[in-house]
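>> received
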Amino acid sequence: MTSVGEPPGTPVGRVALRILDRAPALATELARRIGSQVDFYRTGDVVSDEDLRDSCRANLEFMFRRVAGEAAVDLAAPRETGRRRAEQGAPLAAIQSAFRLAASLVWESVVGEARRGGDLGDAELVAAAAGMWALHELFTTEMENAYEEVLAERTTRRELERSVMVEALLQGRVVDTASVWHVADTVGLPHHGLFVVVAAEVPALARQALPGIAGLLREQELGSAWCLLPDAQIGIVSLRTRARLDELVDLLGRTASGRVGVGPAYRALATTPRSLHLARIAMVSSGTGAPAVNVFDRSPLPMLVASSPERARRTVDACFGPLIGAVVPAEVEVLLTTLQTYFEVAGSVPDAARRLACHPNTVRHRLKRVEARTGHSLGDARGSAELIVAMQAYRWLAATDGAGPPTSYGSGR
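>> returned
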């Protein structure tokens, strides 16, 4: 036999047809061999004895009919076995072992029947062996393809379910304890613990901002569940302890291609929407598209500004409006850069002068102009605080507007 199937009526074909009548008995023998030699099938807990015998009979009949040259026989039997065992959770290696035992039994049966009937000599049996193992390869390949199809379908279905569950948590549609526990089980998160929400800006529609992040976190023994939205990749990460936040931030920083925000830690999964809101604020707070990881709890002032762009504009308008309206744009930038530098060096005029490469008296003069135009005194705690908040809002709006520092706010300026 030099091909997978012999033409009908050949000596090998006649042998196979005679054996076909004994398929039920051979199926019982094959099931016994599989049960004794393949650990997965030994207990019968997952695949019952009856199920195994039925599968053995179907596959043996398929193989004998193919050997007999019945071209009309399709590959439904091995495919059904592959799909069924995948659905039952059988390891692929165990099924492959069972198929090897089936091929061996078929060959033993062909050789034995040929010897008894005198149909084939040794040379003909050797030639037939090549076709027999080609059949085994075809048979096994069909089973494996069907098995992998089921796994792929299951993986796709599970990922879809996980994504839907994660989105339900993020949108606050999971509130009662039983539902939260069900969702936690589905997405692979603990029922209780310490969680953070991560919001990562996507580089383009339907493209992940943090490719492979779930696996990378798993390597660090951090559980997570993710969903992809049009503008961001959102994840819920189980930290276990606050000490692991730095590990998460470091990993995100090495993986991210754009801005990433991490919301404040929380313990109840039902409160996830609030953390998502703050994670999104953290994501956009830098105001630029450069890769950066911002943790909400570590930068409260910029996060406060970013939480409401409209309020940020009003703050700038109220504080810097008179200055912006009376001074040319280039000079506005000089004055506010001086003010920002002054704040960055904790109110030291000499240090600010060194950073700005100018004389301390120049710094003092610029600051007095700011005080005069804004009506806020740097010597007053409240005045300084309002200038600090306005300065933060001004810089954030300048970056997010994408057209350089704003030069006017409100009507009439």
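>> The chain has 17 helices and five strands.
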